[in-house]
TrEMBL record:
This is tRNA-queuosine alpha-mannosyltransferase. Residues 3-172 form the tRNA-queuosine alpha-mannosyltransferase N-terminal domain. SUPFAM superfamilies: UDP-Glycosyltransferase/glycogen phosphorylase (SSF53756). Gene3D superfamilies: Glycogen Phosphorylase B (3.40.50.2000). It comes from Varroa destructor (Honeybee mite).
Length: 362
């Protein structure tokens, strides 16, 4: 009997990082063939969220698994309907994000099916794991109001889902870098997807204010771009050209980490974030996080890393432009240990490893 099946319908970025880490960890503890990973590429998220259950049902091996670990991109309820043989295993649902908290630019055009699918998946799961308390709280808080918007029939589900919900932070595997970069000019990095929900307008407006104030700084803009790139990126590329030392997606993980290690400050202006892997990786690489007072950030970082307004962000950055060696020194004093794999390994193992049988070797 195979022990564990891991399923990821959007295998890329942090979703792929987590699955690869878990597969490697489990493979060291189980026999060959006892861990299976089934994935789909990280293309066209909306299609994956709507239709991945069918492809997965047709491609998951027909084995008797003890546990299934699946991210909330796929509809678990649909998958179990198509593959009833999987219903008997313990089903663990992992939320990297939740669609009930997704910022909607035009509510009249909102597709409510995505949030509804995640509720169905949560009902079908035996255990639900969120990557942050913010992610868990917003999903649970918005669930029943969302369901009660249905005309005539109210179906509150929080009481069914909350008791089986818990939090396990996404594990960072980088070792801490505490040595100074010794930059004579402040290096600022923005490491996010090139989309509106990451707040690029807010970030580049702040950079323009720094430049107009005569501040000396260098700019590293990382992150993955998609088909529709917000116009502000091209405008910023031109107006901030003399400050830019890197622009665009890093060609390799090694190059990405090298750029983070050469940065003094990692900035987020996100409007939509349930954890903050890139910011944490920046902090582990020695860059001081400056993050907004919203979303998951107050849960992750102390008050000294948090700003309330763009004016506060700009003020902090101006101060660090005058003292470019200070940010990395401040970052070295942050306690980030609870986000490292070494601290989280036991929690993931408890969630995934079957209970040891009598006379078992593990």
């Amino acid at each position: 009997m195979a022990e564990i099946l891991l399923v990821e319908a959007f295998y890329g970025g942090s979703h792929a990082q987590l699955m690869d880490l878990l597969v490697n960890h489990l493979s060291e503890r189980l026999q060959p063939g006892e861990v299976d990973l089934v994935t789909m590429t990280d293309k066209k998220w909306h299609w994956r969220a709507r239709t991945s259950a069918l492809w997965l049902a047709m491609n998951i091996p027909r084995k008797r698994y003890k546990r299934l670990f699946i991210s909330s991109v796929a509809n678990l309820a649909e998958l179990l309907g198509l593959r009833p043989d999987l219903a008997g295993c313990e089903k663990i649902l992992y939320f990297h994000e939740n669609q009930l908290e997704y910022p909607v630019r035009n509510p009249k055009l909102c597709d409510y099916q995505y949030g509804y699918n995640q509720i169905l998946s949560a009902l079908a799961a035996d255990k639900i794991v969120f990557n942050s308390e913010f992610n868990k709280r917003t999903f649970l808080d918005k669930m029943d109001p969302f369901l009660n918007s249905q005309p005539g029939y109210h179906t509150p589900c929080r009481s069914l889902i909350e008791p089986k919900s818990s939090v396990l932070y996404f594990p960072i595997t980088l070792e801490r870098v505490k040595e100074p970069a010794n930059n004579s000019v402040l290096h600022i990095v923005w490491p996010h997807r090139w989309e509106h929900d990451k707040g690029p307008d807010e970030f580049f407006h702040a950079m323009e204010e720094l430049k107009k104030a005569g501040c000396d700084f260098k700019l590293i803009v990382l992150g993955q771009r998609y088909d529709e790139v917000p116009e502000v990126f091209e405008k910023a590329r031109v107006s901030l050209s003399s400050n830019i030392i890197h622009w665009g997606y890093a060609p390799s993980k090694e190059k990405f980490l090298q750029l983070l290690r050469n940065s003094d400050i990692v900035v987020s202006t996100a409007l939509h974030e349930f954890y903050g892997v890139a910011v944490l990786e920046g902090a582990f690489s020695g860059a001081l996080p400056l993050v907004p007072n919203r979303l998951s950030y107050p849960e992750l970082f102390p008050k000294g890393c948090i700003y309330n307004t763009r004016a506060q962000l700009v003020k902090k950055l101006k101060e660090f432009c005058r003292k470019p060696l200070v940010p990395r020194r401040l970052c070295s004093s942050l306690d980030l240990s609870k986000y490292h794999w070494s601290s989280l390994k036991a929690g993931y193992q408890d969630a995934l490893m079957p209970p040891p049988a009598k006379n078992s070797s593990y």
